[in-house]
Write a structure and sequence with these properties.
InterPro entries: Quinoprot_gluc/sorb_DH_b-prop. By secondary structure, this protein is mainly β. The chain has one domain: 7 Propeller (Methylamine Dehydrogenase, Chain H). The chain has no helices and 9 strands. The protein has strands at 6-10, 14-19, 24-29, 47-51, 57-62, 66-73, 79-86, 102-108, 113-120. A 4-stranded antiparallel beta sheet has the order 6-7-8-9, with no helix packed on it. Strand 1 (6-10) and strand 2 (14-19) form a beta hairpin. The radius of gyration is 16 Å and the shape is globular. The two termini are 21 Å apart.
Length: 126
Amino acid sequence: SPSGNMLLTKLTRAIKVWTEAGVCTKTIDRPKLVQSICWLPGGEGGDVVKLDLTGKVLDKYSFERLTILDVTVTRDGQRMLGVGTLLSSQDGLQPSKCRAEKQIIAYSLDKKEIEKYVVSKDVCNQ
């Protein structure tokens, strides 16, 4: 956590909140596969969901045509950086013989829009 006294861990369809002493204080069940978790400063598929520690949904960021694999938030809380796979083109075409396009995106949390994206062939989630 930003304060350094809590830890989040992800399960397939849940997030666990842990104390510094190693006690699990909350299990937040999610209806979809949890790909990645991160703390927002101060505080699925193509959706990134912002939760409080009780599991209440505070905000949701949807990315059409992208599967988001991992995210992080800048220290100032202004931008989210994400890594994702493009599922289809703007015309709805899907790759059939080539590898799906990978992208690194910079997303404005205030404006709720992608500010910039970079196409990369070598992005992976490890």
